[in-house]
Predict the 3D structure of the following.
Amino acid sequence: MALPPRRTPFITVLDRTLRAGRALGLVSPAELRMDAMLASAAEDTGLDDFGDPWFKRPLAVLLEAIQGEARLNAAGEWAARQQFHHVLRDRLWTQMWFERHPEILARPIPHPVVIVGPMRSGTTRLHRLLASDRRFAHLRSFETISPVPRPGFEEVMAGGSKDFRPKLAARIMKVARLANPRTLSIHPTGPYEPEEELGLLVASMWGMKHEAQWTVPTYGRWCEGEDAEPAYRHMANLLRLIGWSQQESSLRPWILKTPQHMLDLPALLKVFPDARLIFTHRDPRQVVGSAASLAWNQTIIYSDHADARSVGREWLRKTTLQVDRMMEARNNIPAELMIDVQYDDMDSDWRGTMARVYRFLGLDMEPAVRGMERYVDRSRALKRRPHRYSLDQFGLDEGQVLDRLAHYIQRFDVPMEGQVAPARLSVVHG
């Protein structure tokens, strides 16, 4: 079995420093109790309305799973505490903005275009190509990290000061790259790059982001049995808030995408009933290997006990569930509201593939071509190194993946690469 990559010395040094600080009484332990975290966020903001209390249900399950399963190191505990505080503080500010500006919640979200596909199936590329078209609205990376403007944002809107969130996002990205430089090749980004709305679901303590950074299988399975509609309703309201903060026309359709939608299509369509869906497909050997690699490269930051075989098994299971849920949901979606796009077609002829997407959307592609070409050029500069991985690193082989996902390959006629030995099965596109 080939060994997966190890974490950087930066995290080991940080972890030892935090442990030493605790031993000397200079650093307080990271308290991961719900009541303490809610109280801390309320004290920090002077507010007490967190909105729909539904989020406390997944938060309770997640905290229990972190305590019982994640085996976080000191750096992981500290990072988790910071993440929860950030999200809870944003929930308080969200309600503040809705109270100050009730017109935000009246903003329509007309016929969004939602890209739905497994992790690492080319959704980012398709999303960013469409986001380069100014006829659509999109999130920027700093807005999925910090969806909610800080108090005093009216002055920013009036041109009297600058929004702090892009600078904060740049700092967070810098630390993330110190923690693991491979994140730049796995998911190239910058504060202003178009980004998915996964952070808007995290605002409800919902979604696979938690499973990709921590070993929390109990939480993951709990979510798989719950109705995600409350999380999607909060996500829609955050989109309204972000559109208002961008001073964006509410008539422009949003371009959305996150692999979480594979599991939650019924909830998504309850909240966005006029959504147009673009499904992406890719050789499942590549999807599973790349998803496992992404999760591994995050998990090793936060825990000293990550197990590559466990990561491989879990993301094979998770990918299979995503595919099964997606296929089941499609049985109730009118054919005219969806289109299928193959990863290989985007690789070999992105212009021709995008022309077919634009015909589906009923739009002339020509006004968007120059913006797309600029994105293609920019993406080459962003992606400095290829993302390399193998199934073998995670205790998997091609046969296991093909057996589990043969029905998916057949249903969507997914192009398959040659039968390459597992240890050499690698790709260069995320």
